[in-house]
Structures are given as structure tokens and as C-alpha cells.
Amino acid sequence: MEAELVALASTGAAALVQQMVGEAWEQTRGRVAAFFARRSGQDVAVIDGELEEARAELVDAERSGDEQARDEALTEWRSRMRRALRNDPEAAGELRALLDELKGTEAAPRQVVETHNTMTHSTVHGGTVIQAGTVGSINSGGERAG
Fold first, then answer.
1. Cα 87 to chain center, whole Å?
2. How many degrees, rounded to 5, is the angle at CA 46 between CA 79 and CA 89?
3. Spatial distance between the Cα atoms of 134 and 142, rounded to a whole number of angstroms
4. Three-class SS string for the chain?
5. What is the superkingdom listed in this entry's lineage (predicted)?
6. Under 8 Å between Cβ of 79 and 3
7. Bridge partners, residue 114, by sequence
8. Torsion 48-54-58-60 (CA) sign
């Protein structure tokens, strides 16, 4: 197998494992299941079940800090992607398109705004205080995320 396809399989497996523990997994799962089902001849529901089982294991591993489980998942899905790419010449184009889509589903970086208030010898009577980095379209303390 040529080096480019090996690299594509590795990139695909890493993206898949990352998506499995991310917030965008529900948007991704069906496309990934269909990708593997077309190449394996298995039913999409079977692949979907395998993906969900792998996801549950990864979520548990992430909570417990089990790096080995993540590495095992990467190895498993890299092997499956390599077989798909080796057996179907059209798989590479589809996987590249899927990876491009996944880049768009990654969560935007969270905005962190630190606010420090100091009140010394102050008297406050009534009123409402709202302290936030972003309230609707009102923003204080930097650029608005999103």
C-alpha cells in the first residue's frame, strides 16, 4: 500500500477516535458507519453498533485516564481504514471528503475571559450586577467567540 494511503488511514483513524469522544459524534457516526458498511458488505446497523461500542469504551477510558485504550482504538480503526482503502480505490476520495467535513464540525475554541473585581471600603445599596464575558450579542473583554 502506498505511503499516502497509509498516512490517510492514520489520519482518518485519529480523526475518528477524536470525534467519538467529542460533541459532534452524533453528526458524524452515520457517515462513518456508511463508509465502512459499503466496503465490508456488512449492514450499516452492525457497523453503527461497533462504533457505539468503541465510543463507550473510549469515553470510559478518557474518564479514567486510560491511554492504552485510546491507543488500541487507534490501532483497530487504522487497520480497518487501511483495509477499506486497499480494497476499494474510491474509498480514498470519500475518506478525504469525510475528513474535510469533520474539520468543519470541530468545536470552536472556547473563549476565556478573566475578570478580577476588587472592592475596598465600598458600600453597595441594591441594584443588579451581571458579570459575564458575553451576554447575547453584548461582549466585554475581547472578541466574541463564534
1. 27
2. 45
3. 9
4. CCHHHHHHHHHHHHHHHHHHCCCCHHHHHHHHHHHHHHHHCCCHHHHHHHHHHHHHHHHHHHHHCCHHHHHHHHHHHHHHHHHHHHHCCCHHHHHHHHHHHHHHHCCCCCCCCCCCCCCCCCCCCCCCCCCCCEECCEECCCCCCC
5. Bacteria
6. no
7. none
8. positive
Grid cell listed for 91: 474509498
Residue whose cell numbers read 463564534? 146
List the Cα angle 55/58/60 in 5-degree steps: 110
Q: To which residue does cell 450586577 refer?
A: 129
Please give the model's pTM, rounded to 2 decimal places: 0.66
If you average pLDDT over each of 71-85, 104-118, 127-141, which comes out highest?
71-85
* Contact criterion met (CB below 8 Å) for 13 and 70: no
